[in-house]
Design goal:
Belongs to the peptide transporter carbon starvation (CstA) (TC 2.A.114) family. The structure is a single chain. This protein has helices at 2-16, 18-26, 34-37, 49-60, 64-72, 79-104, 110-118, 120-155, 165-181, 188-212, 235-242, 251-260, 269-293, 303-310, 313-325, 327-360, 367-384, 389-394, 396-417, 423-442, 450-478. By secondary structure, it is an all-alpha fold. The radius of gyration is 21 Å and the shape is globular.
Length: 479
């Protein structure tokens, strides 16, 4: 349990110390923000800081830090280290720069930001990456809740239309259309802070339940510093890919511009972007601790957690909340597993609309302009929603972390051009390059070449990427 509190203290301290250093390195000032200068009443709308923080938290989190953390707990308490140091040195830095670079460039989508600093080729790569990722996320977060709603009605003896998954899929997609189309302050700005608070309350309730019940004991890192995964799945780099939203996630870079378009002052960036990521890290740490402490360990392996997750991630969340909080936990769990994915899904489609709008320079103030983009994007979601759920999700993890890698290299080039400490982002960029490339060579859904090839290939390619970056800086210096 002591190691849990040490990691928690490091996360909180990381916000005040390292997060402030990141903020100072970027160098915020009193310039007029896009929300004030453009203010179109649709996507550029000034919102108060507390609301920005909660909306950003819900946009980047949803159930990501819960699903990922529970899956990551299969490796044992060693996952605490990745959540803690990943959040401080990679995730917080990534989220901060993706938001602030967007803010400095008129609230541009992350694909456009990458193009500004890495060139036209990378801009087009990121455009495709971003749209594919966002539509996949939006679709998965429609299909999942639709199935959960059906299960809820069936378990309570209902019949008829309310137990039809197809019906609920179309209901959710219809809601997505409305939320994607209308002004950001009409639904997202008013309702999402409430769900953000619920997400925090759920995590706090789980933590209190763990600490107040004697049968739950959080294992120490130093006593269990080995791979506890029942299937023997390697820690490097599968664990680093699995625990995405709880440590670093490229999806966040697609969401940060939404709030970059709503900030009244650059001074809010530290709290809104770095702060929301640290809050997500704390949520992930709590859920990882729950996964490590609530279930039986057999022969040094987390077999009990594996059995719980075999019933589905949503069922595992329900089980954790029930064991730690009782009836209140069940209510929070049902709210969480249904509402939180939906709130991440609609902002995913909204971000996709903005990426396409920035790509083709389509002004979004007019209703007709927004309709031209909303209709095809939601139609694509409807088609993908009828594909095999596992196939759609299979490619999300690698795409997600590769996007994070590219964003960190973008921030590194920005810092170099501004003659600032680019190692702040270049080090995590190199690390995430190794993570992403190793997984690409190792994973069954990718090249499936095993660790013998994947480990050296991932490291070599990460060094190559660093070399390309250093060569690019020298070329610019010579010019």
């Amino acid at each position: 349990m002591l190691s849990f509190f040490i990691c928690l203290a490091l996360l909180i301290g990381g916000y005040f110390v390292y997060g402030k250093m990141v903020d100072n390195t970027f160098g915020t000032d009193d310039r007029e923000t896009p929300a004030v200068r453009i203010n179109d009443g649709v996507d550029y709308v000034v919102m108060p800081q507390w609301k920005l923080f909660l909306v950003q938290l819900l946009n980047i989190a949803g159930l990501g830090p819960i699903f990922g953390a529970l899956q990551g707990a299969l490796w044992g308490p060693v996952v605490f280290l990745w959540i803690t140091f990943g959040t401080i040195f990679a995730g917080g830095v990534h989220d901060y720069f993706s938001g602030m670079l967007s803010e400095r460039n008129d609230g541009a989508s992350i694909s456009e930001v990458c193009g500004i600093y890495l060139g036209g080729l990378m801009k087009n790569v990121m455009r495709v990456f971003s749209i594919v990722l966002l539509v996949m996320v939006g679709t998965v977060f429609a299909v999942g809740p639709a199935g959960l709603i059906v299960t809820l009605f069936q378990n309570n003896g209902a019949a008829g239309l309310v137990t039809n998954k197809e019906f609920w899929l179309w209901v959710i997609l219809a809601y997505y259309f409305i939320a994607t189309f209308i002004s950001i302050d009409k639904i997202i700005g008013k309702i999402y802070p409430v769900f953000g608070i619920c997400l925090i309350i759920m995590a706090v309730g789980v933590a209190i339940g763990i600490f107040t019940k004697a049968e739950f004991v959080i294992p120490e890192i130093w006593s269990n510093f080995h791979n506890m995964h029942p299937k023997g799945t390697p820690i490097w780099s599968v664990m680093f890919i699995t625990v995405a939203c709880g440590a670093i996630s490229g999806f966040h870079a697609t969401q940060s511009p939404l709030m970059a378009r709503c900030m009244k002052s650059e001074k809010q960036g530290h709290f809104v972007f770095y702060g929301a990521m640290v809050c997500e890290g704390v949520i992930a740490l709590i859920w990882a601790a729950a996964g490590c402490s609530l279930y039986a360990v057999t022969g040094g392996l987390n077999t009990g957690l594996q059995e719980a997750l075999a019933n589905g991630q949503s069922a595992a969340i329900y089980d954790v909340c029930k064991k730690t909080m009782g009836g209140i936990g069940i209510a929070l769990a049902m709210l969480g597993v249904i509402a939180c994915p939906i709130t991440s899904g609609d902002t995913a489609f909204r971000s996709a609309r903005l990426v396409v709008a920035d790509w083709f320079k389509i002004d979004q103030k007019a209703y007709a302009s927004r309709l031209k983009l909303c209709i095809p994007l939601l139609a694509a979601g409807a088609i993908i929603g009828h594909l095999d759920y596992t196939i759609v999700w299979r490619y999300f993890s690698w795409t997600n972390q590769t996007l994070a890698m590219i964003v960190l290299w973008t921030a590194s080039m920005y810092l170099y051009k501004e003659k600032k400490n680019y190692w702040l982002t270049a080090v995590p960029a190199t690390f995430m390059s190794a993570v992403s490339m190793t997984y690409f060579f190792y994973a069954g859904e990718c090249l499936n070449l095993g660790t013998t090839v994947a480990y050296p290939a991932g490291i070599i390619l990460a060094v190559v990427f660093l070399g390309i970056f250093m060569r690019a800086t020298k070329k610019q210096q010579a010019a």
